[in-house]
Design brief:
Layout: H1 4-19, H2 36-45, E1 51-55, E2 58-61
Antiparallel strand pairs: 1-2
Amino acid sequence: MQTEGFQDGLRCLEAGGRERVTAIMCAEGFPARCHRSLIADALAVDGWRVLHFQSRNTARLHRRTGLMNAGTT
């Protein structure tokens, strides 16, 4: 998450989010088992409201995984 590539991608995603409603998708049904949780954590830290859609009728607000604080004291 500290790599230049991750940060570049995050900036691109945030720029799109400022212009329109934006979604990223993956075939993994459970966010905790997916790279989306890393992206969602980074967005939440930056103040974005992140929702996980698990079905057509079900969405839940992202709760940070704590990975953003890994390695810090």
